[in-house]
């Protein structure tokens, strides 16, 4: 069975601080895919990134960066110089390589950026 | 805007009733997924269709059913509704049924059962 753990239920920081959201996953698949989604207060789920299990290269997109470490089964997400608009619930998700299943989501981290 | 369209956005209905949620996938996407988000269960995968055929099944109740039509839009039917079915229901789509495809979500349909 697959599992995604986001141990941080809620994080509150002051604007312009850097913040890291943790994601730890469990899977027996050798090929798998990891995702991050953002859910703002309006409710929609916004895709942020997809990472393949065979590509451990870290990625940076503007103020966002992701650190994928297979050795520790982690796929952490860092926001640099946080802004109030970053306030949302962030979900980490996993999908096995077999395809016969949907995304397995973590319970999400509620990020609050205070002005 | 993800390109996935869901209707209705909000729905209030009584216990025991039946509702239908509708979804239009992104243009060109052949795979459609349904997810349920509730406070106690979190985000759960319900079912996936690919080009009209059921592809994968998750934690979908027997009271729920779905289908994907030849024009690729999909419907999720929820019957004999219970208070616990109150949730945000998401439709999502991807290009094919490959696990590596990015899955794009719609804005969701808020269902309240009273």
Global shape of chain A: globular
The quaternary structure here is heterodimer
The largest sheet of chain B, given as strand count, sense and whether it forms a barrel, is: 7 strands, mixed
Percentage of residues in strands of chain B: over 45%
Measured by residues with Cβ under 8 Å of the partner chain's Cβ, the largest interface is:
A-B, 29 and 27 residues
* SS-derived structural category of chain A: mainly beta
Biggest sheet details of chain A: 6 strands, mixed
In round numbers, the mean pLDDT of chain B is: 95
Termini Cα gap of chain A: 41 Å
Number of helices of chain A: 0
- For the terminal residues of chain B, how far apart are their CA atoms? 31 Å
List the SSEs and their pairings.
The complex is a heterodimer of chains A (115) and B (114).
Chain A: E1 3-5, E2 10-14, E3 19-21, E4 24-26, E5 32-39, E6 46-52, E7 59-61, E8 64-69, E9 74-79, E10 88-96, E11 104-105, E12 109-114
Parallel strand pairs in A: 2-12
Antiparallel strand pairs in A: 1-4, 3-9, 5-6, 5-10, 7-8, 8-9, 10-11, 10-12
Chain B: E1 5-7, E2 10-13, E3 19-24, E4 31-38, E5 42-50, E6 53-57, E7 64-68, E8 74-78, E9 87-94, E10 104-105, E11 109-113
Parallel strand pairs in B: 2-11
Antiparallel strand pairs in B: 1-3, 3-8, 4-5, 4-9, 5-6, 7-8, 9-10, 9-11
Question: What do these coordinates show?
Answer:
The complex is a heterodimer of chains A (115) and B (114). Chain A is an all-beta fold and 115 residues long. Chain A is built from no helices and twelve strands. Chain A has strands spanning 3-5, 10-14, 19-21, 24-26, 32-39, 46-52, 59-61, 64-69, 74-79, 88-96, 104-105, 109-114. In chain A, the strands form three sheets. In chain A, strands 2, 5, 6, 10, 11 and 12 form a six-stranded mixed sheet that branches. A four-stranded antiparallel sheet of chain A has the order 3-9-8-7, with no helix packed on it. In chain A, strands 1-4 form a two-stranded antiparallel ribbon. The mean pLDDT of chain A is 94. In chain B, the strands form two sheets. In chain B, strands 2, 4, 5, 6, 9, 10 and 11 form a seven-stranded mixed sheet that branches. A four-stranded antiparallel sheet of chain B has the order 1-3-8-7, with no helix packed on it. The model of chain B has no long low-confidence stretch (mean pLDDT 95). In chain B, strand 5 (42-50) and strand 6 form a beta hairpin. Chain B has strands at residues 5-7, 10-13, 19-24, 31-38, 42-50, 53-57, 64-68, 74-78, 87-94, 104-105, 109-113. Chain B is an all-beta fold and 114 residues long. Chain A binds chain B through residues 31-33, 35, 37, 42-47, 50, 52, 91, 93, 95-108, and chain B through 2, 33, 35, 42-46, 48, 55-56, 58, 88, 90, 92, 97-100, 102-108, 110.
């Amino acid at each position: 069975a697959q599992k995604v753990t986001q141990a941080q239920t809620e994080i509150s920081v002051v604007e312009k601080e850097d913040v890291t959201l943790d994601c730890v996953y469990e899977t027996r698949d050798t090929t798998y895919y990891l995702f991050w989604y953002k859910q703002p207060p309006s409710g929609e789920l916004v895709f942020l990134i997809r990472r393949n299990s065979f590509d451990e290269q870290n990625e940076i997109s503007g103020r966002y960066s992701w650190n994928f470490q297979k050795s520790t089964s982690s796929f952490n997400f860092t926001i640099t110089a946080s802004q109030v608009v970053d306030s949302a619930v962030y979900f980490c998700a996993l999908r096995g390589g077999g395809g016969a299943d949907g995304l397995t989501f973590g319970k999400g981290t509620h990020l609050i950026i205070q002005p | 805007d993800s390109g996935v369209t869901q209707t209705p956005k909000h729905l209030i209905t009584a216990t025991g009733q039946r509702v239908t949620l509708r979804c239009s996938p992104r243009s060109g996407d052949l795979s459609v997924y349904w997810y349920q988000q509730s406070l106690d269960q979190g985000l759960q995968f319900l079912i996936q269709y690919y080009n009209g055929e059921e592809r994968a099944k998750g934690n979908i109740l027997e009271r729920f059913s779905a289908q994907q039509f030849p024009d690729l839009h999909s419907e999720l039917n929820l019957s004999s509704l219970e208070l616990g079915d109150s949730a945000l229901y998401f439709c999502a789509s991807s290009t094919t049924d490959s696990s590596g495809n990015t899955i794009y979500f719609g804005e969701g349909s808020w269902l309240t059962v009273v």
